[in-house]
Specification:
A three-stranded antiparallel beta sheet has the order 1-3-2. The chain has two domains: 44 residues; 53 residues, Multidrug-efflux Transporter Regulator, Chain: A, Domain 2, CATH 1.10.1660. Helix 1 crosses helix 3, helix 2 packs antiparallel against helix 3 and helix 4 packs across helix 5. The chain has six helices and three strands. By secondary structure, the protein is mainly α.
């Protein structure tokens, strides 16, 4: 654990935010560039990575789920599987992809959505009260 000087401001972020920064904010490349140049910053960036990995490992389902979710080993989900997880229609999933709220890749005539993106989208919807 990195100790912060008593008068130095600090920010506490969630593991999900750390995972979001890893995925969308380029935190991985920043961590690699900083490695070996500033030990304190490098250590803190590594802690962010560990928090992100912890969140990713736990974001594949909850004990409270009412439906059986697709196997946790599935990294990619279809629009139908995503819709089932989110409790919306597959059309709503495709619309969310279209407006950029959810990341998805078109493969042939099907959508592939990463489980991590689904979890980020779900958490963002919850935070907005949707």
């Amino acid at each position: 654990m990195v100790l912060i000087r008593p008068r130095e401001p600090a920010v506490l972020i969630s593991a999900r935010t750390a995972a979001w920064l890893e995925r969308y904010g380029g935190l991985t490349s920043l961590r690699v560039r900083v490695r070996g140049t500033d030990p304190a910053i490098s250590a803190e960036l590594e802690q962010l990575r560990e928090a992100a990995m912890s969140w990713r490992g736990s974001s594949t389902g909850t004990e409270e789920a009412t439906k059986q979710e697709p196997a946790a080993s599935l990294r990619w989900l279809s629009s139908t599987q995503t819709a089932d997880l989110l409790g919306v229609t597959s059309r709503a999933v495709v619309k969310a992809i279209g407006r950029g709220a959810l990341q998805g890749a078109r493969v042939g005539n099907r959508w592939r959505i990463s489980r991590e993106d689904v979890e980020h989208y779900r958490e963002a919807r919850t935070a907005r009260g949707e």
